[in-house]
């Protein structure tokens, strides 16, 4: 089925060789039941479903507060350092990078840079050198307040800010964290830092439309109201319980049926490099939501045509366990036209008057056909253009699809118990009090492996 709307559309026609309507129909009732549960205030997961209607229940006062602090940052500083990992930075980075020019020499704009998403000593040192002669604000984002990567970066950056700005850091550091719990909330309460709330019932990877994503985006000059408007439109459009009227559910169902047939890897592909970090966000969303109980589709992303010249060969002809979702931007605001050349030195005059976007779109269609012919099921998601409104729509679409997809597989979309194994090991090996016996066991095993 192809749902055609101006802003956003999906095309499933290349799936008919792999899954049929009869198979899909069998899931009409279960999808409808999951939908009712997702929208019920008494749902078993109501403590994690706050994201469902965030965009329609916008808190105008909070938006104004974010805009006002963002405006202060834009006036007073050249750099905002956003400290966070996973859902606490991927959404903002996704939208920011999608909407920021590839090359920009603009001065006078606040640049948003990220820390706490890795533990590279070189990265944090170089970041501090980079901001040395520029005015700085910091937004530390952690719902739990205990995640190691942002916590150690914040410790270093806080000391740096103290030395550089003294008491003024109370104005220059803004915390985004749980409304009641955690060390960052305690810090905000005890030391008077300004703060925003991550709603208790919204988990990290579903939090882009809360201050987690909205505040740094506003500071970076992104129109957060338009982002929310797009998400609001998606919320309304994706309100139907029947998958035939709800593209998010049809996408979820198609993935689910493909997985059952052995297509266990989804490649999200785009021909626009600026979408690279939208895919990083998408990977966390689907990977953490679905990858549990030995189930789940492995989410991978590529940027074409760059990657057609690296892993394109595998996609075309390697092991057949891949399906592909192409995210296409229908209209480009900016383009470049190929001109006629008298001597035709490169024999490319047949491209006269074609734009890069024309050629890129033909490349998209060419690879869709080639991959399909090579046995790859292909879905196309198309947005009309790359702006806040359409990205807001897209982000919400993926959130709704992801929750349905995980529920269909019978896993809880909102927990991530697997991440705890790594966290426990690292705390034990770093001598965190309380982990003594695990430390002993892990050290013995490491000796066996490495000595
Ligand atoms: O905001 P926090 O609590 O620091 O968590 C950051 C990220 O870590 C995880 O808890 C585990 O990867 C993610 O779900 C979350 O987005």
TrEMBL record:
Pathway: Carbohydrate degradation; glycolysis; D-glyceraldehyde 3-phosphate and glycerone phosphate from D-glucose: step 2/4; Carbohydrate biosynthesis; gluconeogenesis. GO terms for cellular component: cytosol. Its main location: cytoplasm. The keyword Phosphoprotein applies. InterPro entries: G6P_Isomerase (IPR001672), Phosphoglucose_isomerase_CS (IPR018189), SIS_dom_sf (IPR046348), SIS_PGI_1 (IPR035476), SIS_PGI_2 (IPR035482). Keywords: Cytoplasm, Gluconeogenesis, Glycolysis, Isomerase, Phosphoprotein. It is found in: Cytoplasm. NCBIfam families: PRK14097.1. This is Glucose-6-phosphate isomerase. The gene is pgi.
């Amino acid at each position: 089925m192809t749902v055609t709307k101006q802003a956003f559309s999906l095309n499933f026609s290349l799936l008919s060789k792999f899954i049929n309507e009869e198979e899909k129909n069998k899931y009409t009732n279960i999808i409808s039941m999951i939908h009712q549960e997702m929208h019920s205030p008494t749902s078993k997961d109501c403590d994690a479903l706050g994201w469902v209607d965030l965009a329609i229940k916008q808190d105008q006062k909070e938006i104004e507060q974010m805009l006002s602090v963002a405006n202060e940052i834009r006036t007073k500083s050249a750099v905002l350092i956003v400290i966070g990992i996973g859902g606490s930075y991927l959404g903002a980075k996704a939208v920011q990078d999608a909407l920021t020019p590839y090359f920009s020499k603009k001065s006078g704009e606040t640049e948003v840079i990220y820390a706490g998403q890795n533990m590279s000593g070189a990265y944090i040192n170089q970041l501090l050198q980079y901001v040395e002669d520029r005015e700085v604000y910091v937004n530390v984002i952690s719902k739990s307040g205990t995640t190691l990567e942002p916590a150690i970066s914040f410790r270093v950056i806080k000391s740096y800010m103290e030395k550089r700005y003294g008491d003024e850091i109370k104005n220059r550091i803004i915390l985004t964290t749980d409304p009641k719990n955690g060390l960052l909330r305690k810090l905000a309460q005890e030391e008077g830092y300004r703060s925003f709330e991550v709603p208790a019932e919204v988990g990290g990877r579903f939090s882009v439309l809360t201050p987690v994503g909205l505040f740094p985006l506003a500071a970076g000059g992104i129109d957060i109201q338009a982002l929310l408007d797009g998400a609001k439109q998606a919320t309304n459009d994706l309100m139907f319980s029947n998958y035939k009227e709800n593209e998010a559910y049809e996408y979820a169902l198609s993935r689910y049926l493909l997985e059952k047939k052995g297509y266990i890897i989804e490649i999200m592909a785009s021909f626009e490099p600026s979408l690279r970090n939208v895919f990083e966000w998408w990977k966390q969303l689907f990977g953490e939501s679905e990858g549990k109980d030995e189930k789940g589709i492995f989410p991978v992303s590529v940027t074409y045509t760059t990657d057609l010249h690296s892993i394109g060969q595998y996609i075309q002809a390697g092991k057949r366990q891949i399906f592909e979702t192409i995210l296409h931007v229908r209209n480009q605001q900016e383009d470049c036209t190929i001109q006629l050349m008298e001597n035709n030195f490169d024999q490319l005059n047949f491209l006269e008057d074609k734009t890069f976007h024309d050629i890129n779109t033909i490349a998209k269609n060419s690879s869709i056909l080639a991959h399909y012919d090579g046995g790859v099921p292909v879905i196309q998601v198309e947005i009309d253009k790359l702006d806040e409104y359409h990205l807001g729509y897209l982000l919400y679409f993926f959130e709704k699809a992801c929750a349905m997809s995980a529920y269909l597989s019978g896993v809880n979309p909102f927990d991530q118990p697997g991440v705890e194994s790594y966290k426990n090991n690292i705390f034990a090996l770093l001598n965190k009090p309380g982990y003594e016996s695990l430390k002993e066991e892990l050290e013995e095993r490491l000796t066996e492996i490495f000595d």
